[in-house]
Amino acid sequence: MRSNSVLSGVNLDRTSPVPLYYQAARALEAAIEDGRLPRGSKLESELDLAEQLGISRPTMRAAIKELVDKGLLVRRRGLGTIVAPQPVRRAVALTSLYDDLAKAGREPKTRVLSFEEVPCSPEIAEHLGLEVGVPVLRFERLRLAGSDPIALMSNAVPASLLEITKEDLEQTGLYELFRGNGITPHIANQRIGARKAAGKEVELLEVESGDPLLTMERIAYDTGGRPIEYGSHLYPAESYWFEMMLAEL
Questions:
Q1: Is 226 helix (H, G, I), strand (E, B) or coil?
Q2: CA 19, 20, 21, 26 torsion: positive or negative?
Q3: Facing residues of 221 across strands?
Q4: All domains of the chain in start order, with CATH
Q5: Rounded Cα distance, 114 and 206, in Å
Q6: Separation of alpha carbons 62 and 55, rounded Å
Q7: How far apart are CA 181 and CA 42, in angstroms?
């Protein structure tokens, strides 16, 4: 659906004290909320939108920035401005992103960017409670929901725990592979933060340099308390909601 049909019939009130850019932003937001502008669709250019509403290009630019700041629009490298994909709603629980996407009907897909068995580095050894030099599987994956890249994931797993291939990682989630090898993920220590996008992640996640990314580091343990996975993941900030329940102690 093109945005010129979405904005047809929209009349901005030039006598109102409400700024024109704000009125234009609300018109676009209403179209997103009621589905006239589908999630993931490409927005027309600032100039086209400005002409449709009879406002200046700088005014339209301010309206778009308003919705970018709210996370409803995103600027994607090589694509322009698009309506933000539906966020993945994740509880703070020990679940696989692959499983969460499948449960939500989001068509999880995986591109394995690297997969190798290497000697354990001092940093990974500390995270996994291993001796330096012990073999570990290190792999990096780009997780997609449909055609939308939504996570860049780097993981390290003791090589003695899993017999898996690159093809296995392309077809299912890591935790399902653990279960298939008789290992049950049980608890994890997880740290969530944020930083600006830079380097190769800009192209892989289709974001702009400097865009906000959520970061997640996790060490997962099995039912016997053995460290089984260290993960360091990156997510476009507009793609995620993390939900948790809080209670007074």
A1: coil
A2: positive
A3: 187, 227
A4: 3-83 (1.10.10.10), 88-243 (3.40.1410.10)
A5: 19
A6: 11
A7: 43
Q: Which residue has the tokens 């299912």?
A: 172
- Give the whole-angstrom CA distance, residue 111 versus residue 126: 28
The secondary element (H helix, E strand) that includes residue 216 is: strand 212-222
Higher pLDDT, 1 or 76: 76
pLDDT tens for 65-91 read 888 877 788 777 677 888 877 665 555
Residue with tokens 């309206």: 63
Rounded Cα–Cα distance for residues 135 and 168 (Å)? 19
Token pair, residue 67, equals 């919705």
pTM of this prediction? Answer: 0.64
Q: Are 155 and 173 in contact (CB under 8 A)?
A: no
Helices (H), 19-158: 20-33, 46-53, 57-70, 97-103, 122-128
Query: HSE-up of 92 (CA within 13 Å, CB side)?
Result: 12
Sign of the alpha-carbon torsion through 42, 44, 50, 52: negative
